[in-house]
């Protein structure tokens, strides 16, 4: 029997076998690549972090834009006399707060001022851990509160 006769009987030729092996290798390579991508937790985390950052930036931008629009709308609809009175009241509050702050600073002992200054600097230097800790505390309290309601 010749090669053509063997093909019609269902027996593959060596060339067909090579092609089949090559296709299988390609499929296995693609499967391995897909499995490697799924198991790369670090890369997935980076992708998700980037996506969340992008969403947060977009949301923040939208919020700022809406807040600016709302502020402008309120300003446009507020009578001039009321705006002037508000500006005067705000200036008076700033002046009173400044005087109160100066009074408190004058009456506070120097060691206490130094400690509070160091604490404020430490808080500014460690904002991210403080924010994360606060978020965890809030989440804990919300979970605890919701569990209390379910009982």
Automatic annotation (TrEMBL):
Domain of life: Bacteria
Database matches in Pfam families: DUF3618 (PF12277)
Comp. bias regions, Polar residues: 1-11
Residue ranges, compositional bias (Basic and acidic residues): 15-30, 39-51
Organism name: Streptomyces microflavus
Annotated spans, Disordered: 1-60, 87-113
Stated name of the protein: DUF3618 domain-containing protein
